[in-house]
Every structure is written in C-alpha cells, then in structure tokens.
Amino acid sequence: MRTIRFILLAGLIAMPMLAAAQPPQQGRGGRGAPRSIEGLTASSELAKTPVPLADRIAHTDPARYNRVPASHNGSGPIEYMSLHDSRREDKFKLGSNFLFLHRGFLPPGGGIGAHFHNTVEEMFVIFDGEAEFTIDGRTSVLRGPAGAPARTGHSHAITNQSNQNVQWMNINISTIPGYYDAFDLADGRVGAPKDAIPTFIHMKLDRALLRPVANKDGGQGTVQYRRALEPSVFFSPWSYVDHYLVPPGASVGPVSRRDMSEVYYVMKGAGSATIGKETAAIREGDAVPAAIDENRAIRNTGTEPLELMVIGVAKDMESKRRFIITGGR
C-alpha cells in the first residue's frame, strides 16, 4: 500500500514538470503559434536580407487564383491568390504584424461563412458590385468599393447573392507575430434578414468623399485624400486605411513614418513607387509594401488618375498610441 501511495505521489509531483516540458499546443483554429510567450505583444521581424523593390511588389494575377469550395463553411466558392503573407515569405516581413493580403473574387452565390477571430483583425473589401456583409450576426448590403472590419473578438461573413462576380480583398492583421485563429459558426448567411442601415463599422471608398490636399507628405501638386478608417476603429496595431486619388504628374511623399508599415494597393491607374533608394513601376492590382521607417513615395506617371488604398499598421500598440497622440497623418 505504501508503495502505491509513493508511486501516486511521485506521479503528481512529476505532472507539472512534464507539462512544462511539452511544447505549447495549438489552440482550436489556431495556426503558427509561437513556441514561447515571449513576443506575444511584439511585432514580427524585418526581412533578414534586402529584397529588390521590383520583387517585393505583388501583382494581382487571375491566372494564379485558387478555387476554394466553401471557405469557413461559406455560401459557395471563392477564387483568390495571396498578394502578401508574412508567414511564408521573408520579403513581406515589415516589422509589424501585417499577416496577409488576399485578392480575388466572389462568384454569384459565393462567400465566406460566419466565423470569429480572437487574435486577429480582418476586413473584407469589395471593389465593385454589391455583397451582403455580416458583423456579429447583423447583415447589410454594401455596394463597392466598400469594406467592413471585424475587430478582435467579433464575427463576420460575406456572401455574393447577385448575378455578377464581385472583386474582393481580405486584409488580416494579427496581435501575435505570425499567428492566425478562427472559430467557425457553420453559417453561410444565405437568406439572413438585412438591415437597411448597417449596424456595424464600415467604410466607403467613394471618390466624392475625398478632399484636396496640396503637397501631401512633401509631394508635388494637389491630391485628393481621405482617411477612410481612423486608428480608434481597430483594437490591434492596425492604425488606418487611407484613400488617395493622385492626378497625372502629382506625387505623395517622400516620407518616413516612425514605426509604421504600410501597404499601398493600386485600385486604378499606373505610376511609380519609391521605397528607400529604389523606384519601380506600379499598375492596377499591385500591392507595394513599405516596412517600418522606410522612406516611401508614390508618383502618377500615367495619363489617368492613380487611385490608391493605403493600409497602415504600427509596430506595436505603444507605437500606435504615439501615432494617435502626435496626430499622425
């Protein structure tokens, strides 16, 4: 009997030691969790080796789209490609927790089912047509170009119930370096009741809302500009979404933003991007990444207006707080 008690006692003592020795387990729906708690509030690293700007710029290419039958148990298939994924390619490590950027389209009936994110913030954007957006179980129709962010701890979904393809993007920012999570609700939201006025935060990338700004960030000429989403919208280091219309010959920058990474997405037109000392041509569908503290500038070298959506993500929450206090633009 004493021998049995000794074995049980020894087992109880050893259990915490064994548990401590085990690698952290992946949470439900989680992917790529760090192997220690160090860095849970830190940002991802910068690229270890320099990558030429022309190789860093991602190009939308429908020939590279992958077809997914029912993302998050959605209403139907979607087709998309990854423009940016810091988990897979070193050239996209911007010194912030900008996790990934997807570009594709929702065919008629296609969509992404309702799901929660608890460590990431995500936003679906449509560039044309219309789609039914759901945030926290409330659904409204948004007409593109528009988007609706799902903040950490909230659920979202999207479905295209029109008879036309809808051009779509997904932006994902993490609060933990390289980590993604999702909790599916198995609800495609087909036939959901719709509110005429959305009950959730959303943005419209409407040119009529833009306002003239001369010599923006030291640039040449007058551009049309608007901050579509402010820093207070987001719970993570995600800091803003800006909308620009740059006329031919005009430019934005050069400017260096302290502890702020950005991705410039070209909605329409063509021009050039300068990051650091390198300059490369850009066109519709391109995504131009700028790491924290990198000098950056955009110029319209074409004959039509250059329309941009700019996603700003701070290095960490303290950097975002400083950006807000100093009235960062």
Can you walk through the features of this model?
This protein folds into 2 domains: 53-204, Jelly Rolls, CATH 2.60.120.10; 207-325, Jelly Rolls. Helices cover 10% and strands 42% of the residues. It is built from 3 helices and 23 strands. The strands form 4 sheets. It has a 7-stranded antiparallel β-sheet. Strands 2-3-4-11-6-9-13 form a 7-stranded antiparallel β-sheet, with no helix packed on it. Strands 8-7-10-5-12 form a 5-stranded antiparallel β-sheet, with no helix packed on it. A hairpin with an 8-residue loop joins β15 (222-229) and β16. The termini are far apart. The model is unreliable at 1-29 and 31-40 (pLDDT under 50).
CATH superfamily assignment of the largest domain?
Answer: Jelly Rolls
If classified by CATH, what would the architecture of the largest domain be? Sandwich
Number of strands: 23
Strand content: 35-45%
Give me the strand/helix succession: HHEEEEEEEEEEEEEEEEEEEEEEEH
Q: How many distinct helices?
A: 3
Computed Rg: 22 Å
Q: On the 0-100 scale, what is the average pLDDT?
A: 89
N-to-C CA distance: 74 Å
Q: How many domains comprise the coordinates?
A: 2
Helix content: 10-25%
**What's the level 1 CATH class of the largest domain?**
Mainly Beta
CATH topology category name of the largest domain: Jelly Rolls
Biggest sheet features: 7 strands, antiparallel
Q: Main sheet: which strands, in order across?
A: 1-21-18-23-16-15-14
- The shape is globular
The low-confidence parts are 1-29, 31-40
Class per helix and strand makeup: mainly beta
